[in-house]
């Protein structure tokens, strides 16, 4: 039996291995690639659609219980790089 988490973008449940974990370091939103960083984490499908929904709905701030605006620049850079890897671009 594998742990199940809820995507903050589309609000559907999925196995932990199918999602990425996002954490906040201070007020910066970063990807937790090892899925083991301390503190609260938000889970997300590795798709542009789910990420854009979560950013638009400001779901990361609520899921991570962070007051104030989050710096999403690092997260958006990762997302742009991930999209290029999926599409086969460099």
From TrEMBL:
Recorded superkingdom: Bacteria
Boundaries of every YlxR domain copy: 5-69
PANTHER family for the chain: BLL0784 PROTEIN (PTHR34215), YLXR DOMAIN-CONTAINING PROTEIN (PTHR34215:SF1)
Protein name as it appears in the record: YlxR family protein
């Amino acid at each position: 039996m594998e742990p199940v988490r809820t995507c903050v973008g589309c609000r559907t449940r999925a196995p932990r291995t199918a999602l990425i974990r996002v954490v906040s370091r201070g007020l910066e939103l970063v990807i937790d690639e090892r899925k083991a960083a301390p503190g609260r984490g938000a889970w997300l499908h590795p798709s542009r659609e789910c990420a854009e929904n979560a950013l638009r709905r400001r779901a990361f701030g609520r899921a991570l219980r962070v007051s104030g605006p989050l710096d999403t620049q690092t997260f958006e850079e990762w997302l742009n790089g991930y999209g290029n890897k999926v599409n086969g671009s460099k």
